[in-house]
Fold this protein.
Amino acid sequence: MTVLVTGATGGLGRNAVEFLQGRGRNVRATGRDGSVGKTLAAGGAEFVALDLARASRSAFESLVDGVQAVWHCAALSSPWGRAQDFLAANVKATQGLAQAAVARGVERFVHVSTPSLYFDYSHRRDIDEDFRPAHYVNHYARTKAEAEQVIRDLALRDGGTRFVMLRPRGIFGPHDRVLFPRVLRLVRERGGRLPMPRAGQACIDLTYVTNVVHAMDLAGRADVASGSVFNITNGEPTSLGHVLGAVLGPLGLDFRLVAVPYPAVDMAARAAETWARMSGREPTLTRYAAGMLNYDMTLNIARARQQLGYEPVVSLADGLAATVEWIREHGKDYGL
């Protein structure tokens, strides 16, 4: 069996490639980082250099030719950027890839979406898959929701390719380029002082990357309706402060969470965004990022448990401990 992994040079994609190879499956991988692509090729994957946001129909069909499954991890994931870039990377690329999969008779298409599309600057716990906010908070959330609709439309029209969508929350672990790298950078820049709404008491869900890959594997095999969507987390809601302590403490990094009123943080984010629109530079703080630090947000994973048979294979405590060891081993990559 050959599986195509998109976004293979990112954190989730690299873990997906390693998982599949560990189970004897052939992997065709594509991603934007050529240096990581060389590493994947050296490890036995077939690496195809391709910018999905600019790929032609023939390029998409060539990419999926001969594969039995697609694990679509690629996306433009950022709280800031141009609308047209998010549209190209998240909607048009997904549409082109999914249509090619149908045309070439690919059996399974696992699409990695995001729970960011739920966020609406409110405290929300136990969110199920059917919830929708009145408005999407940024281009990323909106275009990921539009990409899901592309998948649903194809699932309704075509019976040959089975589509399954996952919304994993707060992915962390080996090869992470987002969550803890940003935290460690802030700790260095601020001398260990971390101003934060509610002093880090926001209740959040995280997902260790091995659990996300496990869910992708289940989604590629489960007998579920095409177009189904599932929340994925570790199923262990906790506070942001606890997570920071579990990683920064064992690393020997001194830090202090300083409570800052959320209205003041929101005002600073609004000012930063205004300046960004004038200067053309990415803001140092966005309203979305500020809100994520302030509001509780946890997901209900009952549907994944019932229909996919999903249960986290790595606990939150073990995942955080493994992440500490990874950071220790790759300290130079994290500026340590």
Observations:
- The longest helix spans residues 83-103.
- The chain has a mean pLDDT of 95.
- The domain at 2-169+207-232+299-313 is CATH 3.40.50.720 (Rossmann fold).
